[in-house]
Amino acid sequence: MRKFEPSCKWKRNEDRDIIEIHLKEFKKDQLKVQISNCGILKIFGERQSNASTKSKFYKEIQVPSNIYDTQAIQAKFINGCLYITMPKQKTLLLELKKGTSAEELKIDRSPKSEFQLAKATVAAAAAGVAAAAMAVLVPCVVYMCKSAICHVDN
């Protein structure tokens, strides 16, 4: 059994991210893509390389449900390339595009919600969201980080 790490690209767009995995020697029926209830995207494949050897790979990617619409994730295998399309949550995109103020976001201040919003803000920054939207979200994250530290110390 030969395990390997396939070549992989992550393309980030405003409304979706696409993972492109190069698997030239594989066939569609040798691949499997699953999303768990916990938001873990599992990608794996196995094929017979020759009479005595199999090639195998396995990848896990955390897919936050507050950023991505996990029910709409799709996978396509075209010309030796596996494309996994992960649409972003429409509510997050609309709020960021409108330039919603921090007060209008109606932030749930529970530690779990604060952590999820912090992750969404980091993802928005990585995706290149407009500076105005980031100006609204960054103060929220700073407040949440201070709040989370207080929760830990108590």
UniProtKB/TrEMBL annotation:
The keyword Plastid does not apply. GO terms for biological process: cellular response to heat; defense response. Residues 1-108 form the SHSP domain. Belongs to the small heat shock protein (HSP20) family. It is a single-pass membrane protein. One of its GO terms (cellular component) is plasma membrane. It comes from Handroanthus impetiginosus. Pfam families: HSP20 (PF00011). The keyword Nuclease does not apply. This is SHSP domain-containing protein. The chain crosses the membrane at residues 122-144. Its main location: membrane. It is found in: Cell membrane. Keywords: Cell membrane, Membrane, Plant defense, Transmembrane, Transmembrane helix.
